[in-house]
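Chain A, query sequence.
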Amino acid sequence: MTAALALAAFPTAAQVAGPEIAIGVLDHAIRKPFRDDPPPGFIYQGEEERGSADIQLVYRSAPLTKALKPRLTARLQVNTEGRTSFASVGAEWRQHVLNDRIYGQIGIGLTVHDGYRFTPDPFASGLSAAEAARRFDLYIERTSFGSRVLFNPNLSIGVRLNQRWAVEAAFEHFSHAQVFSKQNPGINSVGIRLVRALGRRQ
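Chain A, predicted structure.
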């Protein structure tokens, strides 16, 4: 009886269908799965910024009534160590299970970033020692994305704490699939978000 009452009191999909805001902390530029450590003195493309962290702010609209009912989204993902930050717009689709206590979410977005399309070549001829050293630091610490505009496929799994609050495990990918240039290392970030539902509860 107690379990039945608890389930009955938990918010239904209609009750949590308003807009949302979220704040997250993500590990920036994580290593791709099943990839061994690089040999000493080498670094994988897309991992130049590994070891830094991002703060992410998210706004989600209420679900639309058409086109599989996506939520429109806006994201700002700021690197805390001055490396690449991202601003994205897109859409997300959500599926609830277990009386809406848990949900899975998949999304796609279009992103602009403030990092490097191409880092300056540290091995170019005619450079001073100081300029070559400056460029080499950028070469090993900053990712060359190959484009100012990137795609942002993303995944998350959420657990609702109550009608207003949820917590999500999040995965973000940024790359351009060689649409805009052959340079396309891509990076991945994972982290956790705290989500707050807005508006009146039904």
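The mean pLDDT is 90. Helices lie at 2-9, 129-141.
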